[in-house]
Structures are given as C-alpha cells and as structure tokens.
C-alpha cells in the first residue's frame, strides 16, 4: 500500500471527514486520510475534538494487532505526490477540489465538513497520509448504535452517564444479548481508552454473521491529547465488570514489558515513522495502569467471575 502505483483516485465515501478513495495497481481499494497536524500538536476542548489524525489510524491498527484483537483493517502510512501520482488519475469530481495555497498543493474533497476554505495541504506537492485497506465487496457490513455513545450535547447526558446499572439493560438488547459481542465492546473500551478515542458512537459487524464480532473501523479520533486520559471511555468496563481472560492476560503482559516499547518498535517500520510522539507513547503505559486498576477493583468486588474464558 505504501509503494504501489495509484491507478485511480476519487472523492471518499460519505462521512464527516475529508478522505480520498484510491485504487492501487494490484486492484486494492484504499482510503487515504491526509495529514492535518504535527506529531506534537495537542487537541484541546471536547475529547472528540479536531479532525481525524492519519497517524492515529496507523498507530491504532498496530496496537489492535499486538493486543491480538485483529478487528481493524490494514493501515500504512504513505507520502504521495498530489500532482504526479493523484491528479492525473483523479476523477473530475476530485480534481475540481484541488487548489493551491502558499505554493502548496491542496484539496478539500467532499464530505459533511469539507469546504474550499479549509483544504488539506501538502508540503509543496508531497502530502503525507494514511492508507486503509478497503474490505472486499463480498463483505457487507451492518451498523449499530454503540450503547455507550455520547449525546454530543453539553446540556444532555446519555443514560450510561447517570445510571451505574445501565449494563444490565444493555445485556438484554439485540444483538448485544450475545455474550461475545458484549465482550467485544469491553475490549473496544480498553482499546479506545489506550488510544484516547472518545468518538465511538457507532460500531459495525459483518451483516451475514450469525454470531457477529465488532469491527474496529475509523480510529482517526485518536492520540489527540497525551496529557488527558478520558475516564468515561472505560464506562463499559466499570459498569459491566467483565473482561475476556485472554484480554486481561495480554494487558498484564504488556504492563510488565512496556506497551510503549512494543509500539515504538512496531511503528518504527512504517514509512512515515515516527508515527507517534514520545508523549503519546508514554501515555499508553499510564493508561494501561488505569485499566488494570479498574479491572482489579472489579475482581476485588466480584471475584474471578469477572474474567470470562471464551474464544475471541
């Protein structure tokens, strides 16, 4: 994905964030998310503030992989020449959104928040971004509202923010009445807390799967603020007080050997390395300690029944 010739370029699929859809020489379809921020830039405001972070997509994929979840599509970094690699093979719709600012080539695409006055700009003609592998067409997805979704309104809280027994109701809802999917949601809360993603308002499963697993798509709202640990992301863990034994074992192993060290090593091989700042890497270790404390509190209260022995 980082080196194959780009054969076609078009505007991205519908959504709120800027992206482009590319077809590579091998026939693979990928989603290109452009770089918006420096590695050391800190997102302030709401925990879901800011545009998607392309480096967050890259880091999230590798974290998902080393934790053994294997529910995120492949992601790799790439630097593309917009004028020589993209513009000649782009559709007229995408080409119409190309512009120039301060001798830098830019594009603003088409999405809910996309506008000509706020394009993504390359450094000269070279734009850094992430490429996410598009799933083959035979895999159709079904979207569900995340039971611990936010209201995104300061004047109104979600039920889970006020009801500590909320998990009892979630367990009765479709399709989460299946224990596997609830445990997937717990894994996702752990994952999102580590990456700082407080924007998981929807989730996807494979449509034809009778015992669906939660897919970890769209991880761009991650690694925004290394100084802030958004505790509300762990609400599913705190309220349900269960976790896969496999997940707990893996987390304890990385707590001993250093999650930041493992991530630093795997991310060093990406074409746009360094992917994360040292502050974001250090935040992984700190947040892992927080997760351990939450799970240990559950074990103290409810015993070993907190740890569920089931397959992924």
From TrEMBL:
Residues 98-305 form the FAM20 C-terminal domain. The keyword ATP-binding applies. The keyword Transferase applies. GO terms for molecular function: ATP binding; kinase activity; metal ion binding; phosphotransferase activity, alcohol group as acceptor. Keywords: ATP-binding, Disulfide bond, Glycoprotein, Golgi apparatus, Kinase, Manganese, Metal-binding, Nucleotide-binding, Transferase. ATP binds at residues 17, 33, 132-135, 204, 218. It holds the Pfam family Fam20C. Transmembrane segments: none annotated. It comes from the Eukaryota. One of its GO terms (cellular component) is Golgi apparatus. Its cofactor is Mn(2+). InterPro entries: FAM20, FAM20_C. Mn(2+) binds at residues 52, 218. The active site is at 199. It is found in: Golgi apparatus. Belongs to the FAM20 family. This is Putative glycosaminoglycan xylosylkinase. It comes from Stichopus japonicus. The lineage of its organism: Eukaryota, Metazoa, Echinodermata, Eleutherozoa, Echinozoa.
């Amino acid at each position: 994905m980082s080196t194959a010739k780009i054969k076609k370029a078009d505007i991205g699929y519908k959504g709120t964030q800027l992206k482009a859809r590319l077809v590579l020489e091998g026939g693979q379809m990928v989603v290109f998310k452009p770089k918006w921020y420096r590695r050391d830039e800190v997102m302030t405001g709401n925990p879901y503030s800011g545009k998607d972070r392309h480096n967050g997509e890259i880091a999230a994929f590798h974290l998902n992989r080393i934790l053994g979840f294997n529910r995120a599509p492949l992601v790799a970094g790439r630097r593309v020449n917009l004028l020589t690699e993209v513009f000649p093979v782009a559709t007229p719709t995408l080409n119409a959104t190309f512009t120039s600012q301060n001798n830098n080539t830019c594009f603003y695409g088409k999405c809910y928040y996309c506008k000509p006055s706020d394009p993504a700009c390359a450094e000269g003609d070279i734009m850094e971004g992430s490429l996410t592998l598009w799933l083959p067409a035979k895999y159709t997805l079904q979207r569900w509202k995340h039971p611990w979704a936010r209201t995104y309104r300061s004047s109104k809280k979600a039920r889970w923010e006020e009801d500590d027994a909320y998990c009892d109701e979630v367990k009765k809802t479709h399709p989460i009445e299946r224990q596997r999917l609830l445990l997937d949601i717990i894994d996702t809360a752990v994952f999102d807390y580590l990456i700082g993603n407080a924007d998981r308002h929807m989730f996807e499963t494979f449509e034809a799967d009778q015992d669906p697993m939660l897919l970890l798509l769209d991880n761009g709202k991650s690694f925004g603020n290394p100084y802030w640990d958004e505790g509300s992301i762990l609400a599913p863990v705190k309220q349900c007080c269960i976790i896969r034994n496999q997940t707990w074992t893996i987390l304890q192993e990385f707590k001993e050997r250093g999650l930041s060290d493992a991530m630093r090593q795997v991310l060093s091989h990406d074409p746009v390395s360094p992917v994360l700042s040292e502050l974001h890497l250090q935040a992984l270790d700190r947040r892992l300690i927080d997760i351990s404390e939450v799970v240990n509190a559950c074990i103290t209260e409810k015993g070993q029944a907190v740890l569920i022995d089931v397959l992924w």
